[in-house]
What does this fold into?
Amino acid sequence: MKPAANSTDARTTAIEVLCLWATTHGSVDLFLNSAIEQLADIDRGLTKTMVYGVLRQKEYLDYIVRAHTRHPLRKMKPRTLMTLRIGVYQLLFLDRIPESATVNATVNTLKTAGQPGWLIGFVNGVLRAVARSRATLPTADQMASQEPPLLNHPAWMVERWQAQFGRDTALAICRENGVEPPLTLRINSRRTSRSRFLELLHRSGITACAGLYSPLSVVISSYPGSVASLPGYTEGFFQVQDEAAQLASFLVNPLPHHARILDGCAGPGGKTTHLVELLPPEGTVVAVEPDRRRYHLLRDNLRRLGHGKEVLAVHTDLHAYAATRPTLFDAVLIDAPCSGTGVIRRHPDIRWNRQAGDLVIYQQKQLRLLEVAARLVKPTGALVYSTCSLEPEENEEVISHFQEKFPAFQVENVATLLPETTRRLVTASGYFRSSPVDGLDGFFAARLINARNL
It folds into this structure.
């Protein structure tokens, strides 16, 4: 695929997004989604590839830049450093773009931004030096295999994972986080079946296959267009969702007739819409989401997938909703806000945005949510807790602290609630746990039964 004639716009946008991220350490997804609205589809894809690529390979790119300049990176302004990273990333990872075009187009972003001539010459010189030596440079994989390995993750994170999982698994997680993951969809079983949807994709020339773990999953290894351009999007045939997240929703089962389910942290509705599809006859779902942007996405997804009167979306937080004293629920799902260390392969900025001290802060928030949720569960009802974190502080330790205060809630082994293909992902304590080395996002999920009246 050749870049569009105006692909300089993609480079300019990528640099602007990365500069904004570098100065705020906010969510790069929010910056990116806002910035690419005015770009053509092909430039949107190139922009995202460059932004995510730089974040996935940041330490390696910096190693290459250092090898070609005596100027310390720490003294460079964000625009200079991000322009160099963007240029080197293209030279070493995007072979489809000719070297000369890469260097010229990247340097032109500085001219457009009104940067001084000496700086333009400096960046031009570094990039041309990298281009000349490209054939002799060590690859990112070679650098990851050296001692000590260059893993494109902060040291504190790698050290934790080595202590928790062992060195080999920790390094494997880092490697998986450096590779763009496939696009994974969850079929809307109310509108189509997996076999029919796969046939639709194949007729459209899109290579896809059934997922390995979830019976509703479809995996597309490579698709250059937007999700909205996929066949069946407007018809509500699917929702984007990793298999691990799909499996977590199954833990609300079994449900009684007329079941009431609460999604206490609904977000844009990935799990909410799945819960609706799991409902028995006459069942209902209440979805609570305080963030305005996410709430509107939740409503949009519910409409697109055809979910109506059986679900109520509420624009508030769980504490405020609980204060309305609603009728108790048969199942409550708390997909808790967390550090997100299990989804770094999809959101590469997370590794650079987090600090070790954040984990305790997240744990406190998670416990407060569970304490509110516990009071909304019927006797004999289920409380399902999940995160996209690999960290025990946010997973097993949260369950342990919660049970100290609410001993009536007993952990139930989830093995029988999940497909047989997932049994190896269930721990000895009965929790569901996955990681990128399983080909899934890193996820944790626990099911607790309110045994107060048992």
Notes: The mean pLDDT is 95.
